[in-house]
Each structure stands twice: as structure tokens, then as C-alpha cells.
Amino acid sequence: MTALLFELLDVEKSYELRGGGAAFRPGPKRRLRALDGVRLTVARGDSVALVGESGSGKSTLLRVLMGLTSPTDGRALYGGQDVTQLKGERRAAFQREVAMVYQDARGSLNPRLPVLDLIAEPIRHHKLRAGPAVRDRVLELLDQVGLPAATLKRYPSQLSGGQVRRVAIARALASEPLTIVADEAVSGLDVSTQAQLLNLLVELQRRMGLTLIFITHDLGVASFLCDQIAVMYLGRIVETGPTRAILERPAHPYTQALLNAQPRFFAPIAQPLQGEIPSPIDLPPGCRFAGRCPRAVPACREDDPALMPSGQGRAVACIRPLTAAA
Amino acid sequence: MSETLLVDKIARRPAWWAGLGSYIRHRPFFILALLVTLAFLAIALLGTAVTPFDPTFQDMEAPMSPPSSTHWLGTDSYGQDLLSRAMAGARYAFLTGICSVLLGALGGLAVGLMAGLAGGRTEWFLMRIVDAILALPSLVMAIAFIAILGQGVDKVILAVGLALIGPFARTVRADVLQVRALPFVEAAGLMGIGKLAIVRRHILPNVFFPLVVQATIRISEAILVSSSLSFIGIGIVPPTPDWGLMIAEGRGFVSFAPWMSGVPGAALAILLIALAIVGDGIREQMDPKQRAGH
Ligand SMILES: Nc1ncnc2c1ncn2[C@@H]1O[C@H](COP(=O)(O)OP(=O)(O)OP(=O)(O)O)[C@@H](O)[C@H]1O
Ligand SMILES: [Mg+2]
């Protein structure tokens, strides 16, 4: 039996929005559902990629998962316990075992500390090394993420965006975590650096059974790094299952559209998604993808399909999935 | 290892000098103001060693004499040399200015940190007190404190310092609230770093530097307020050579001996303008957003 690490049970996260009105006369209260009935389980040793368009709720899902934001409905569990209610030893274990790489890498680093102190902080805090060994460990980590030793004395403001990202990854690795939760950790890096970091993560996965939850825009990265994939659309997971199977034979039309939009070699003209992404504030009834879906039938605009298992560990939220015939 | 670091240091040095050079070329007024400020500071530190006369020596032969070869800037009604008194006054200006700003900044840091970190009822209560203080100009506040404390150099420092706590507290609180919401503070909490360590390592350094910048800017305000206290006769007591006091003493003779108020007045005005320009320059240098524009 594999122990479930993270569980999201029908998580809903909505934000109250006010606005549109004049000064002192706030407009009507509106609810923005950033997450709407999300179910996700991650077992120890799993690697899960979260993909989806900008604004689909990926970062929000991570924040709920990490207990940084409380869901407005549903529960987020870590090791079977509510992640925001962890106490004592279990809380310490969570803090020690799970490391997060923020989407805003620069913002996640204290601008007043040099790189040495930034990376040494988790090492010292978790008492993983002592004395001069701390510095050696920091140098080793810098080398692993491909930064020169001279970076040690630099401050975040003296580093480029890509270098800052790598410092953030080194800092996450410094706590020797069992789980890494990363929000766009390798986007915006050049191909060779990206490859170096991905290989490093794959090796850690193999050697130490690292659990990975990885947000990415790059389906190539997702298939290289992660066994599982979850495709998000407007606050909901619309398709999930083994990465290879889903990318080879997508069941949800949205996944298919994402694949089409992905630029490929020898196919320079990527096919963009048709239509506008609807506002998450006033969702139309029925399937939220229906307005842009080439396969939509009138029934799609009436019932909101739930994420249903479709065999082989896959699940899809669609009444007319692409692989239904197969 | 040390080799690479040395290389790193050497590589960065020219950039520092180049930056300074271009700064002088682009900001001549800043450099001029800085030199003036440093000159006043040097005079304040050297004190009676460089004044031509003892600032409290009364030359009975030449009371109220206009500028002459013996008394370059003239004398006051007691025959005291105005140049010497103006130079000695610099010491009191800096003493009251710097000490009261230090006091105000430290008090403001404590109150602002407490309010920004505690939140809730404590914050509400502290900030309402600060609001009440801020509703009055710092001079009025200082007058109120003098009324309680009494007169003298130390009392003036205390009164002006207390009056400055409010403005400092407000900016510190705003900075704390801003820094506290930044991802690196959240990230530290996620790692399980204790509240105190987060404040010390992550919040304090990020509010301390803006505070230092603000303190340098507020020194001129503190000098002005303490001189005003002396001018209206409730600050530093005679015969201390304080500028505010000297201006007040010369006020009655302004029609036929204008140098009596003019000399300390000019000293005060020149120092305040110089300090304001220096303060602006420092703020621009410290503000990464403005610096990026260069
Ligand atoms: N604090 C907040 N207040 C109001 N709305 C929010 C807040 N945080 C997120 N949202 C909204 O929730 C939705 C999902 O945001 P989220 O940051 O999770 O998207 P994302 O999938 O991470 O996008 P990206 O790929 O651009 O990072 C967006 O519509 C966003 O505007
Ligand atoms: Mg995001």
C-alpha cells in the first residue's frame, strides 16, 4: 500500500470581489471561483505535473495544498491530517519534508541577504550541517544548479532572473526535502540550464524517491519529469492520469487543444485555442469549456460534467471524450 | 576559494568608482551641499578650538559693533563675537538634531514594529495614539513636552525626540505591513522558522534601511524645531550660543544692528538647505526604483 501524502477533497476556493462601482459605492459582490471542486491525491514517490492556461488556478491549488490559504470548502490533507491544523511533531515533519519553489522566485528571497545566507538558512534551521560544512554544502548546491562559486556573495538584486530561479531551487534542495512543490520552477530558463535542472530532479527522484508536484506550461517538461499529469481549466481538473497515455491519446478536448497549441519541431505554426477563455466570475452553465470546444453539443451547455474514472488510472470530465470510441 | 572572492571584489571596484564619478558630474548641488554639511559638522566637532573668540567672552569695548577686522561678523549687545557664537552654535544644532532624531527613530521603530506585527487591537490602539500625535505639528508637540519637562539642552532633545516618534512609527508600521506580506516571509514560515527569527532576520533589515534614510532627512526638521523652541524662549537657556536664541536676542535691534539676527539666521538657513539636499540625494540613492532610472 502506498501512503497518501497529499489529498485534496473537493476543494473550493473562491474570492469575494468588489469593484466596478464608484467611490464609496462598491459594486455588487461577486465570487471568483479560483478552485471549484478539485480532487487530487498524491502518494509518496509520485510525480505530478499540473498544466493549464494562465489563471486556471494552478498556483491557488498549490497554496491550498501547502496550507498557505484555507479553502472556502472541502479539505486539504497532509498524511491524513488537515494541513492547516498540523501540530507539534507532524507540523515539524511537514516543514522539514516539504520544500516549495515559488512562482515569484525573486520575491521568495530576502533581498537583504546574500546567496550564501539564503541557501544556508534551511541547512542551519534543520541542523543538517554545522560550522564550515554549511558553506561547503552551499557550494555543492550552487554547483548542482549550475551557478559559479562567486555567486555566494551576491545579493538577489545582482542576479538575473534565471540565476534567481536557480538560487530558489538550490534553497529548496538545501533542506533535503522528501517532497518538492514547484510553481513554474524552470520556465524562463535557457534549454541547457533547464535540462541540467530537470536531470538533477530526475536523479533525486530515482535516488531518494523524491515526490514532485510540478506546475509547468511546458508539456515536454511534464512528460520528462512526471508520471502523472493533471490538466486544469478554470479552477477544475478536467483530465488526469498517466502522463504518457494522456499526451499520446488525450480524452478531453481541452487537453487536445493544449497539445495542438504547443509548438513543435517542423510544425512552426502552432494552432492557437479558439475563442476567449471565459471569465471565472460568471461561469456559463454546463461544461465550462463548451464555448471553445469543437465537439460541443447542446447537452454540453446544460450539465457540468464531473471528473469520472475512465479506466487505466485515467479520469476525465467530459460527456463526449475523444477516446470514448476506442 | 578566497582567490575567486578576491577576483570578485576587484572586478566590482571600478564600477563603484565610476558610479561616484558620474554622480559628482550629474549632481553638483548634492556635492556642494555635502561639503557644506561636512564643514558645519567639522566646526561643530572642533568647537572652541577653531572659533576666533570664546563664544561667551563679552568684549565690553565693542558691544553691538558691525562687522570689522577684529569681529568679522560683528558683536551682539553684550559684545560677544557673533562668528564665534555662530560656529559654537553648530554644535548645539547637531547635538539636538541628531540625538532627538535617534531618539525618535528608535521609539518609532519600537512602536511601529509592535503595531505592524501585533495587528488587531494592539495595532489599532497604538496607531490611534500615533494619529493623535501626528494631528499636531511636531513644534506644537515639542512645546507641550517642554511644558512638562522644563528647559535645557537635554530637555529639548527629549521633547523633540518624543515629538518625532509619531511620524517614524507610522512609516515603520507601513513598511512592516508591506514586508510582512512578501513571499520570503511566508516562505520562512513555511520552513518552520520561528517568529522572532523571522522578525530579526527578514523583517527588521528590510525596514531598517528605509528608516535610516528617513532619519537623515528628518535631522533638519529636528534642528528647525529645537531652534524654534529656543527662539520662543522655552528651549535652550542663555548664554548658551544657540542659533534660535541668538536670533531672538537680535530681534529687538534688527533695524540698526541687523547682523545680530542675520548671522545665526543665515547659519541656520544654510545648514537646513544643505541638509535637505543631502537628504534627498541619499533617499534617491537608497530607493532602488529611482536609482534604476539613472
Ligand atoms: N488573492 C486573490 N484575490 C482574488 N483573486 C485571486 C487571488 N489569487 C488568485 N486569484 C484569481 O484566481 C484565479 C487563479 O489564479 P492562479 O494564480 O491560481 O492562476 P495560475 O493558474 O497560477 O496562473 P499562472 O499560470 O498565470 O500563474 C485567477 O483568476 C486569479 O485572478
Ligand atoms: Mg501561477
TrEMBL record, chain A:
GO terms for molecular function: ATP binding; ATP hydrolysis activity. It is a peripheral membrane protein. Its main location: membrane. Residues 6-259 form the ABC transporter domain. PROSITE patterns: ABC_TRANSPORTER_2. GO terms for biological process: peptide transport; transmembrane transport. The keyword ATP-binding applies. SUPFAM superfamilies: P-loop containing nucleoside triphosphate hydrolases (SSF52540). It holds the Pfam family ABC_tran. The keyword Amino-acid biosynthesis does not apply. One of its GO terms (cellular component) is plasma membrane. Belongs to the ABC transporter superfamily. PANTHER family: D,D-DIPEPTIDE TRANSPORT ATP-BINDING PROTEIN DDPF-RELATED, TRANSPORT ATP-BINDING PROTEIN. This is Oligopeptide transport system ATP-binding protein.
UniProtKB/TrEMBL annotation, chain B:
Residues 90-279 form the ABC transmembrane type-1 domain. GO terms for cellular component: plasma membrane. The chain crosses the membrane at residues 29-50, 92-117, 129-150, 156-172, 207-236, 256-279. CDD domains: TM_PBP2 (cd06261). It comes from the Bacteria. It is a multi-pass membrane protein. Keywords: Cell membrane, Membrane, Transmembrane, Transmembrane helix, Transport. It is found in: Cell membrane. Belongs to the binding-protein-dependent transport system permease family. PANTHER family: OLIGOPEPTIDE TRANSPORT SYSTEM PERMEASE PROTEIN APPC, PEPTIDE ABC TRANSPORTER PERMEASE PROTEIN. This is Peptide/nickel transport system permease protein. It comes from Arboricoccus pini. The lineage of its organism: Bacteria, Pseudomonadati, Pseudomonadota, Alphaproteobacteria, Geminicoccales.
